[in-house]
Input
Amino acid sequence: MIYFDNSATTKPYKEVLDSYVKAASDYYGNPSSLHSCGGQAEKLLSQAREQIAKLLGVKAAEIYFTSGGTESNNLAIKGAAFTYQNRGRHIIASSVEHPSVSDCLEQLESEGFEITYLPVNGDGQVSVEAVDKAIRKDTILISVMHVNNEVGTIQPVKEIGKMLKNYPSVLFHVDAVQAVGKVPMDLAGNRIDLLSISGHKFHGLKGTGALFIREGIRLTPLFAGGKQERNIRSGTENVAGAVAMAKALRLYMQKSETGLTVMKNMQKLLRTGLGHIEDIQINTPLENAAPHILNFSLKGMKSEVFIHALEQKGIFVSTTSACSSKRKSASKTLLAMGVPEDLAESGIRLSLSVENTEAEAKAVLDAIETTVEQLRKVMKP
Ligand SMILES: Cc1ncc(COP(=O)(O)O)c(C=O)c1O
Output
């Protein structure tokens, strides 16, 4: 089996599972309890927070645990919108955000907020100038993802952050779910106020995530309850999940020191090989793309058919993104990039991890070539 669907989710590292089991069985106390069982769990949670903060180069007090990327994005966006709505009700986002951002913005729109969705160019990038131009007196928040989950385009978040130094009252949220460990991130030196991460994208566990909230920023909590996570995220903390996420992040970042080059080489190999196939369009840009995603469209071929044919050969890939792959419509990201509708309906995403090898990439390439040939023969009138 070759698993090339790592942007949907990754296989948890064995060490991560071991950490989870140890923390869950030996430190099962509730961190809010007053006795030592609770105290030990609380200590473990603090250590996980410190480790994650250190790896991201921020303060421990700026890390808040959540149930994943979706919750972090909702908390950041709605939390900021509700807190700062007295200043204004205008929000800016790119038109290629993940549904956990775009659907959240739609909800806010129905509550009277005004959203400006910025177009992207053929590479899937928003321009810093367009962001700058869209800012109004009543703009309170800008949300731009770091790496696009469908095509892998890296957005100019550093440059947007720099430009935003001229707008101190506008908050900047970055969905970094696909970026952590894959592209350089300088949170300390950048003007990012809120940043979402998700554990299962770097070999941690599903249902674990965190939101970086820059010191001094107030968010309205989404949940009412026991006031955990310094009153920002009520609910008994997933201590073992947080420990597992800290472990996964440390391992992933260590491995990515060499793994990024391996992924880049695999991506290049796949791009070159796919380029020789007739009627294929590579949608991932050559420049400004993360090393782990390669998206392409096969003219006249249904992506579901293609994916299941590859599955028969033991290879697992995606249509566009995991959450939209069951909805059979054209990829919103590809359409926004100007890809024609028929090609936007036949997008295939290969997504790599530092755990994949060049031998696997070669095998996938061979399998794609033969699958295209086989399917084209069947499709011929
Ligand atoms: C860019 C991006 N943001 C947010 C999410 C949601 O993360 P989670 O699955 O942890 O809720 C995903 C998941 O695919 C994603 O790719």
Summary: Residues 68-70, 73, 98, 100, 145, 149, 175, 177-178, 198, 209, 321-322 surround pyridoxal-5'-phosphate (CB under 6 Å). The chain has eleven helices and twelve strands.
